[in-house]
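Narrative summary of target 7.
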Amino acid sequence: MFKVIQRAVGPASLSLLTFKVYASPKKDSPHKASVKVNELSLYSVPEGQSKYVEEPRTPLEESISHLRHYCEPYTSWCQETYSQTKPKMQSLVQWGLGSYDYLQNAPPGFFPRLGVIGFAGIVGLLLARGSKIKKLVYPPGFMGLAASLYYPQQAIVFVQVSGEKLYDWGLRGYIVIEDLWKENFQKPGNVKNSPGNK
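Modeled conformation, tokenized:
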């Protein structure tokens, strides 16, 4: 259909070179209709139905599958725990970095005060020998007393907040004990102590 005008002949190394080839249609051939893309054999769909056949699993694939199914609850638990603890750990790291920056640029007189407060805790630990309750009460008490001498405003706020919390906890404990007392020690047949029979 087309005739090549220029031909190239040379060694094999020249085959890597690019060159132009000019072609012209034959003048005596009648003009044929163009072929559509879907009519080309390259794009034709082969007849017949294809069927998917799954290859049988090897013993190695079976053992890996069993291992994955066995470990799946543990890996999901680890992912859940990680997603829950990640924000807490990030806030802890931020608090540590903030504390480090504060200690690097501490206000004047901070470290001597910190030393006195720590020394008060050690004195409380030494005075609390022999009793576990004293070991729990004396060191924090002495450290709190020393800290309140240096930071009175913060100590007042701390005492107010902790006093409210202690009062709330005490009230809750009183209510729980009262409910337990009523359930266990006051029976419906016991009419001697009831207020209506005086």
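The radius of gyration is 45 Å.
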